[in-house]
Amino acid sequence: MFDMNLNGNGQAERGLTPAVNGHNGHNELNGLSGHAVRRRLDLTVIIPTRNETDNISALLGRLAASGDPFDVLFVDDSDDSTPDEVRRCAAAAGQLRVQVLHRPAGERGGGLGGAVLAGMRAVRTSWVVVMDADLQHPPELAVRLAAIGRDREADLVVASRYVGSGAASGLDGRMRHAVSEGTIRLAKLVFPIRLGPCSDPMSGFFAVRRDALKLDTLTPNGFKILMEILVRHPKLRMLEVSFVMASRLAGESKASQKEGLRFANKLVALRLGTVVRPIARSAAVAPTAWLARVLAFGLAGLSGLVVNTGALWMLNESGGLHYLLAAALATQVSSSWLFLLTDAVIFRRAKPGTLAGRAAKFFLLNNVALVARLPALALLVEVAKVNVLVANLVTLLAVFAVRFAATDVLIYRRGVPTPAAATSPENRPVPGAAHRQPIREVVDLGTADASVLTSSRPLARYLPYRYVIPEVASVGSQIELPELDYFRAQWLGNEAEIELRVGPTGDRRLHRRAQMTQLTEPPAACYQEHFGRLGANFTIRFDGTIQIVVSPRLARSPHVVYTNVLEALLRFVAVSRGVMLLHSACVEFDGHGMLISARTDTGKTGTVLRLVREYGARFLADDMTIVHSDGTVGCFPKPLTISRHTVQAIESHELTSKEWRRLRVQSAIHSKEGREFAILLSRLNVPIMAINAYAQRLVPPPKYAVDRLLPCQVIRETTVRSLFIIERGPFSGGEVSHDEAVRLLLSNTEDAYQFPPFRQLSPSIVLGADDHVELRRKEEQILRSAMSHVPVRRVSTPDFSWAPEIARLVARNGNGNGGVNVNGHVTVALMTRGHVPDGHPPIGSNGPVPR
Length: 851
Ligand code: GDD
Ligand code: MN
Fold this sequence. Notes:
Blueprint: E1 17-18, E2 43-49, H1 53-64, E3 71-76, H2 82-90, E4 97-102, H3 111-122, E5 127-130, H4 140-151, E6 156-160, H5 173-190, E7 206-209, H6 225-232, E8 238-242, H7 257-276, H8 287-318, H9 323-346, H10 355-383, H11 388-411, H12 419-423, E9 440-447, H13 450-453, E10 465-469, E11 473-477, E12 498-502, E13 515-521, E14 523-528, E15 538-541, E16 546-550, H14 552-555, H15 558-576, E17 579-583, E18 585-589, E19 592-597, H16 604-615, E20 618-621, E21 624-628, E22 632-634, E23 640-641, H17 657-669, H18 672-681, H19 688-698, E24 703-704, H20 706-709, E25 717-728, E26 732-735, H21 738-751, H22 758-761, H23 772-787, E27 792-797, H24 802-814, E28 819-820, E29 826-827
Parallel strand pairs: 2-3, 2-5, 3-4, 6-8, 8-9, 9-13, 11-12, 12-16, 19-25, 25-27
Antiparallel strand pairs: 1-4, 5-7, 6-7, 10-11, 13-14, 14-15, 15-16, 17-21, 18-19, 18-20, 21-22, 22-25, 23-24, 26-27, 28-29
Helix pairs in contact: 1-2, 8-9, 8-11, 9-10, 10-11, 16-24, 21-23
The structure holds guanosine-5'-diphosphate-alpha-D-mannose and manganese (II) ion.
């Protein structure tokens, strides 16, 4: 189809023209250690060109200057000598592998966008960067965009002129500026949800993970291919990087009035395309989708109530019909309205059956509800003497919940994917979609606007609350942090390594969504929510002393400050000191240190309490343990959260009756379900930290120091001799390989940080020379080394009885049934109780379970 200027150089299998000998793609890391490890990028930079001869040399020179090896693909629609110039300059492009895909006149479908799409179809690398040839897009940024995307696990990285220190200064003339901003506004008006999160959907500079795109959904027409990508892939995990658009180096812009028309055309076509010809997507029920449907259904229902009441009023009070007849007719009117709304708007995706079929079921359902409603209505009007309109409303509300469930399941068969929907490749879930969160993620590569970092008001100098977490960090704080109470310290003249202050952070404006900005100059992270300075915002500076500033709103909830800001940070600060904060409990039996790891809300705390009370274990941690690479561990006694299940491990005399009463409410809110609800909520565009802070202030989490709950000895450190991974499930257990154990421990640690904005914060953390990828690599190393001689067992029980199981395993070692191996470590043999489900032969069981 294209004239490909083949000059056969081993690249024929790609159907592209190598312009010159490139690098020989060796794939392994290049043997460096520490932070200097260069993580090789699998990248092609696609550059659409049309008559750009005079820009090629400078462009390739600057691309090559990065020193990184990657592919460059020119998709060329030129009538001048651009392709020859590319070939000429490629020779000097060093480690770059440069190729040209020339489209001869007559085969230049789609213009600029068509060229980009043709390029994307031709490349095989996992990342693609699209950029202009005229040096308006700084070539040095190309590799960085892709690297940021890869390191932050994004699908799409947009270089934006309208975020942070970005600027559109290179646009010539006020006219172009106005046009640029106007088109963005217009496009966002047309696609408020899909384009809303992106500040610069018109950008021609972006990096994208090739597999995240469904290229067949794209039908580009001229400029603005990014806009179409965003519209067609609403679930992409997108982030933005600021950039300053330079002026064109040579030649002239191909933007024209004709392009403007093509853009308008495209916008209309896209909008119609998504309303009239919806793309069938996965029918699998995501909780967010479900919540969104409940809300949409609720709103539609509300409009239905208005329509129904209006119709009833017209028919009954104005028209003089009997109220029961009027109510029956009003239901037909509102049902029609609701059906249109439901079918066209709420359940927009692939639907089973025909329109008429669904309509019939819908009306049937509403009329069944009507039959149930009429007697209730009559009762209210005749007996309770309630006004007809009010009575009607009451009965409507009563059937609302029932109707939603029925519509959901009976007509639209939610939760039951239709076979077609499940198998067509188009409907396979987009990778990364599960992570989508409404918090905007921005990386600002420019010098930060000072107002973001320094508040107008001077902050407190004196930090009255001081904590020293051995070998992790010292913290000086303006607010008391109850979680760190055990580490309270008094010292004078000592500088804290982490300083936490309260002050205004963020700007004064309202925002459509929360945003996490990673600043690079100076290194910092800024989180800001919807309500400007009134929001639950925070800023962390990473240069020198780590300085955290939390907004007054957030400061009023120290628990949120600790869990969602400080603890996330401590985890990585620890790694930078060579220790790991492992999400795990830790106790000691007669010098036998033992870690207990589990997913959040499994039952670690209850198990630890029982081990301490019933088996005399000594306490180090119930949630987080300081792990050294030599296998020794340090204590981290945070106040324990008493959830519904943990309550069973506490004895009644240990709390006052008032505390017990409070605990019932507290443990209901701060339960597994409560947390799950909060995480669900966090997928919506809400100021989640502020909500969390309010909720925690209203109902503080039930937290008690361990020695407040039971007599207990806290010890500072021990050596780990065994590790148990506890799970809920049928009785089972067995040895776990070292690799598997490390994987489980890391995943359990990650599981503890599900709450936003950790996902946006953690990649913004830079400590010294280490970015977050490097920090995570080091964290894994520490863990691997620490666990290298520790036997690991999985213990699964259905009834929270891990404590007796673990105690028996340990005791068994003590009476010679187990043993001590050559390394001096205990080998444990797992025993399960008497009856074990089929397929799990009992591994030996004797004696009653100690209670
Ligand atoms: N292959 C091909 N085919 N390339 C084209 C075509 C075409 O029909 N038209 C333009 N190009 C190339 C140009 O050679 C240049 O490398 C790049 O696409 C951008 O074209 P310009 O003519 O420089 O456009 P611009 O600077 O006015 O617009 C740029 O900025 C806009 C934002 O203000 C582009 O990046 C737009 O996509 C972007 O929206
Ligand atoms: Mn340009």
